[in-house]
Design goal:
With 414 residues, this protein is α+β, with helices and mostly antiparallel strands. It has helices spanning 16-26, 32-43, 53-56, 60-65, 95-102, 120-131, 151-165, 201-207; strands at 3-9, 72-77, 82-87, 107-113, 136-142, 172-177, 221-222, 225-227, 239-243, 248-250, 254-258, 262-271, 274-276, 278-280, 284-289, 300-303, 309-320, 326-327, 331-336, 339-352, 359-360, 365-366, 371-384, 395-399, 406-413. Strands 7, 8, 9, 11, 12, 13, 15 and 16 form an eight-stranded antiparallel sheet that branches. A six-stranded mixed sheet has the order 2-3-1-4-5-6, with helices on both faces. Helix 5 runs parallel beside helix 6. The two termini are 36 Å apart. It binds guanosine-5'-triphosphate.
Length: 414
Amino acid sequence: MDLLRFITCGSVDDGKSTLIGRLLYDSKSILADQLEAIEKASKSRDNGEVDLALLTDGLRSEREQGITIDVAYRYFQTTARKFIIVDAPGHIQYTRNMVTGASNCQLAIVLIDARHGVVEQTRRHSLIASMLGIKHVVVAVNKMDLVDFSEDVFANICIQYTELAQKLTIPDITYIPMSALNGDNVVDRSEAMPWYEGTTLLNHLETIEINEDDNQTLGRMPVQLVIRPQTAELPDYRGYAGKINSGSFRVGEAVTVLPSGESSTISRIETNEQSVEEAHVNQSVILHLADNIDISRGDLIVPSANQPLLSQDVEAMLCWMDTKSLSLGSKYVLQVGTSRTRCSVRAIPYQLNIETYEQIEGIDTLKLNDLARVVLRTAQPVAFDPYGQNRANGGAILIDETSNVTVGALMLQH
Ligand SMILES: Nc1nc2c(ncn2[C@@H]2O[C@H](COP(=O)(O)OP(=O)(O)OP(=O)(O)O)[C@@H](O)[C@H]2O)c(=O)[nH]1
């Protein structure tokens, strides 16, 4: 059964927690004891109805403050698919959490309160989803019950969003009018909106085609470990273990090891202690090469016929995640896959205004949650693909050398 990982984002009070609760409740993914606990907790509230947001608001501090403060993950499953919900908080200061949560999602649900239409947060979340290469966005127009289930209100919001999306790169956008509170169009079709001919949210999540999103053509395997037992039984054993990030590899294929550029052919592929002829994306394998070449952790094995970029000058979109600002000229460690190298920030061509998408030039420092284009110079050449072509080998992080803290997320470009 395949897995869909999606993120939910919206402003505070758009109904994110209620929507997730409704999805779990109506798809019968809640355990009986959880339900009982929620029913009890709800009774002490105003009207005694089951408060679905309680299901979702897992963190104690969240309940104390009444807002979501960190990324939370929830799992559920239907007969069609397994799901991981990444629940990102709505607050402006938590852009970095959304970047963290969304980086490996295939789909984003952008919640819009039908009464308010597209707001600042809609622009911000959509920009981040687009930057992170999320191909599928569901615009969930929620609280339709508060606008009399009006088709006009829904249509206007679709127009507003389409306009915004023209400045972004989101290939697939689906609009669904719903009421998370009442359950309209979440799992069950709404009777209150007969004018809506589309599918329900859950049905959309269950049926959307995602397999083609994984990059099938660019074989990339970052070496995690060189295995050389050098025991009496296995005197010559030498394998390179790692997880295939994208594409596939087969026995007999000519490969190149980066950054050294040395070449060989694959002589054997092991997975689960079996030899296989071919291995694919997301499989953990041990590759054996016909020639003895110098390979260590952090190297990237790629097909000789289809190599990534290799450069010491790297451009990227950056989300700055540290409370300490970034300034021009600062030095960090750049990590791509398993490879690490030192780098300095050579230039900040522009910062992105997250609401208007304008490029602001002449910037020399970046604050927490800022998004900007940066130019880095690295100590060692870095092997990478442009993020837009291959998320798996085009995403990177910046690490502060002294604290070892991740301070930035990068989408590498040409
Ligand atoms: N009328 C109506 N109210 C809704 C609907 N969905 C959510 N609400 C209400 O809106 C309020 C906010 O809902 P939440 O689910 O807590 O909002 P949220 O977006 O998760 O907020 P945070 O997680 O704190 O960022 C609650 O009072 C919900 O009952 C809806 O479809 N219709």
